[in-house]
Amino acid sequence: MDNDELSLEKSTSRVKDPSPDRYKYLASLFYRFANNKISAADVAKLPRRKLRRLAEVGHFKYKYGRYDEAEEIFATLAKIDHKNYYYRSVLGGIYQKLKKWIDSVANYTIALKLNPNDVSSYVNRGEVFLRHDKYKKAAEDFRNAILMDRAGKNLWANRARSLVIALKRSIEAKKQQAPTKNTVVEVPTHPAPRTAGRR
């Protein structure tokens, strides 16, 4: 046996401490992970401080328009710690900037499932719906954001209030562009074609 085979044999997945308490701990850990109670970051015992630092780096890249790099960071963070709504919310914003609308809405929706009180995800998802003429869905998201801040102090809720005005204007413009049912549309007539024999 050479050294590679020996190291492979030694690195087989064995429990370091084969006591019954250790097995019980590992079983409960993987049970909670399998039932979506904890994230992979919890299983691996990754320090939250390091994840926050990485998120700060990703946010910095996002802020300065380096969307591809920010996407890579936040996609990784979302996989490692899938219970954190903030990563999904920022990932939705990145996809919105990259004009990947479906991915954007999907990530905002996941963020809202993880934290139904995330005003920014409601407003941003509503803005994507508004951009694609999904007025009813946009109005629902803006309504939810506004209802969370009745005092008018939250910047995101105030943005939703201004987008509601844009929504109303957009609906009015669509109504003015669409012809009514009773309107007669005149079709331009062309002169009759000349025949070859007549001049």
Model description:
The structure is a single chain. This protein is mostly helical and 199 residues long. The chain has 2 domains: 24-115, Tetratricopeptide repeat domain (Serine Threonine Protein Phosphatase 5, Tetratricopeptide repeat, Alpha Horseshoe), CATH 1.25.40; 117-178, no CATH class. Helix content is 67%, strand content 0%. It has 10 helices and no strands. Helix 8 packs antiparallel against helix 9, helix 8 (119-131) runs parallel beside helix 10 (155-177) and helix 9 (135-147) packs antiparallel against helix 10. Residues 6-13 have low confidence and may be disordered.
Helix and strand topology:
Layout: H1 3-10, H2 20-34, H3 40-43, H4 48-63, H5 67-80, H6 85-97, H7 101-114, H8 119-131, H9 135-147, H10 155-177
Helix pairs in contact: 4-5, 5-6, 6-7, 6-8, 7-8, 8-9, 8-10, 9-10
